[in-house]
Amino acid sequence: MLRRYGRPYLRNRGTQGSDVVKVLGVKTSSSARLLASTGIGLLTICAIGAFPTSSMAQETTDSPSKTWVVTLGATVEYGPTYEGSRHYSFSALPSFDFHRFGEAPEYSAPDDNFDYTLLDLGHLEIGPVVGLRDDRLDLNNLHLQSERKVRWNFDAGGFAQYWLMENRLRLRTEVRQSLWGGDGLVADLALDWFQPIGDKLVLSAGPRLSLANSTYMRSNFGISAARAAKNGHVSAFDAGGGLKSVGFTVAATYTISPQWSVQVYEKYNRLVGDAADSPITAQFGSANQNIIGFTLSRSFDIDF
Q1: Which residues contact 69 (CB under 8 A, 6 or more apart)?
Q2: What topology does CATH give the domain 9-303?
Q3: Domains in the chain: boundaries
Q4: Which pLDDT tens digit goes with each residue over 36-79?
């Protein structure tokens, strides 16, 4: 079923070249966009839900190879306005997933990005991955007399995940490079335990570790000597690459019906190293980064 930016959900694990598409999130900190995106997402889900299930899926007569299960979701998150911020705001993310009907399910976590499995070696899966980076700090807010701003950006790279225990314990890594803007490279490592409770509830939890290269760190946490001199109240800071944060993610997904599910999750990260020592974090922000999210999802079948 469904996934942040997402959520432990069931995604399908097929053969090599698996027809799996995961959640694609678009995030904005604007209140107006939050209300619009959430409203559109919920209206879309409700509109789909208004159609009789029998008109969308005829499991007894349709070939599984021609039937796809599509899941649409609307997510609301409350978290830092940018990485390192001590100020919090709401944001909205639509989510999307589809897979072939009848494929064996596999769990996924809230912070998995959009991926496609090209190589499936049983417990090991490898393929490309795409993510979305949010807006970052506008240094004008720090009165640094600079027009510099790290804007939202897409990143792309590869992922690999290995199931230490089938549909229970998973080790996953993603390495992603920004597609424009020179925002650098990040590498995320996650270990997740998935625990079903009955037929309707699934809990997941696991630690997180994130690294970044010097380009990413300078873009998000560095302050040049020229900008520091113009400001006069902040010191220059040359942020180097390395370990960026450690944290923990927990989630609970409840299946209301075969079509509807809800999920709540929390993602906590502690900035470390230069990410924590930068004045952007130490002087103007916080090393503690906490995100709480809620997702409503609707699944339905379509035939081709």
Answers
A1: 12, 98, 99, 100, 101, 299, 300, 301
A2: Porin (2.40.160)
A3: 9-303
A4: 444 444 444 444 444 444 444 444 444 456 888 888 989 999 99
